[in-house]
């Protein structure tokens, strides 16, 4: 019994002395896991993951791509069906603009030519001279009288307003070549619109409607750029969020000039 107690005390003393003199790092270095780390290739122990993991999308790039070309940001993130949809809307919008803008210009050229053939500026000023009593050759006086008696005056140049007014206001009705009221008629309030004037107005309205439709095409194209850019940015972020992952693995770790085995947790997004 006494021998057993003495042997136990001897072991306890020896273990205490060993614990005081032993560096615990030696124990770690001698562990099987550390030996595994020591045996890893040099490039594996020296390299650490740098930057963001592969496979993620840049939200800024997705937004910029679709802002320039609708659907490009969706193609960048792999959403090809959406990319095709935005690209189709873009093509349709610009097609509508091109077709109706061209149509509006063609009709505009048509009714300008029609007005030049059937409406006479010279006859208009003769009509003004007959009502005002002013000499036909005194254009400054005729224009002054026109401005005093009408809300609109005939423009000097054949601009957009010139062609609009000769069909829109009754004072210009008398200069259409099929007017039913004589140029010197005093029945101001009873002027009848000529058939040529009515046809002219219909063509001018058709031109304006074509230009309005062309404007809608541009509006749709602009909205398509904005919506595509916003959807591309949202889609890129959504796909990045879906790629969040975590893994646990053993990796080497340098500390105090020595290499240790460490348990690593990697979270990527």
Outline the structure in words.
There is one protein chain. With 269 residues, the protein is mainly alpha-helical. The chain has 2 domains: 2-55 and 245-268, no CATH class; 60-241, no CATH class. 64% of the residues lie in helices and 8% in strands. The protein has helices spanning 2-21, 24-29, 32-38, 42-46, 59-68, 72-76, 80-118, 121-132, 139-149, 160-168, 195-242, and strands spanning 245-255, 258-268. It has a two-stranded antiparallel ribbon with strand order 1-2. The longest helix has 48 residues, at 195-242. It starts with a helix and ends with a strand. Residues 1-29 and 31-52 have low confidence and may be disordered.
Distance linking N and C termini: 66 Å
User: Over all CA atoms, what is the radius of gyration?
Assistant: 45 Å
- Biggest sheet statistics: 2 strands, antiparallel
Count of all domains: 2
Secondary structure: helix percent: 55-70%
As residue ranges, the low-confidence spans are 1-29, 31-52
Beta-strand proportion:
5-15%
Cross-sheet strand order for the largest sheet: 1-2
> How many beta-strand elements?
2
């Amino acid at each position: 019994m006494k021998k057993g107690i003495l042997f136990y005390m001897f072991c306890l003393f020896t273990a205490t002395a060993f614990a005081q003199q032993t560096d615990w790092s030696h124990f770690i270095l001698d562990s099987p896991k550390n030996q595994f780390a020591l045996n890893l290739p040099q490039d594996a122990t020296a390299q650490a993951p740098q930057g963001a993991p592969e496979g993620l999308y840049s939200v800024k790039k997705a937004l910029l791509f679709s802002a320039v070309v609708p659907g490009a940001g969706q193609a960048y993130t792999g959403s090809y069906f959406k990319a095709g949809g935005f690209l189709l809307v873009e093509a349709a919008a610009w097609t509508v603009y091109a077709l109706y803008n061209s149509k509006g210009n063609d009709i505009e050229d048509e009714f300008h030519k029609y007005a030049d053939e059937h409406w006479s500026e010279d006859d208009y000023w003769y009509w003004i001279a007959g009502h005002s009593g002013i000499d036909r050759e005194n254009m400054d006086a005729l224009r002054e009288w026109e401005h005093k008696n009408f809300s609109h005056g005939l423009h000097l140049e054949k601009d957009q307003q010139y062609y609009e007014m000769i069909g829109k206001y009754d004072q210009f009705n008398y200069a259409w070549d099929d007017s039913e009221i004589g140029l010197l008629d005093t029945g101001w309030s009873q002027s009848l619109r000529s058939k040529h004037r009515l046809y002219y107005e219909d063509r001018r309205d058709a031109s304006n409607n074509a230009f309005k439709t062309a404007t809608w095409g541009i509006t749709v194209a602009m909205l398509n750029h904005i919506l595509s850019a916003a959807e591309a940015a949202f889609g890129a972020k959504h796909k990045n969020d879906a790629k969040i992952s975590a893994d646990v693995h053993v990796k080497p770790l340098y500390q105090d000039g020595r290499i240790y085995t460490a348990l690593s947790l990697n979270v990527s997004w």
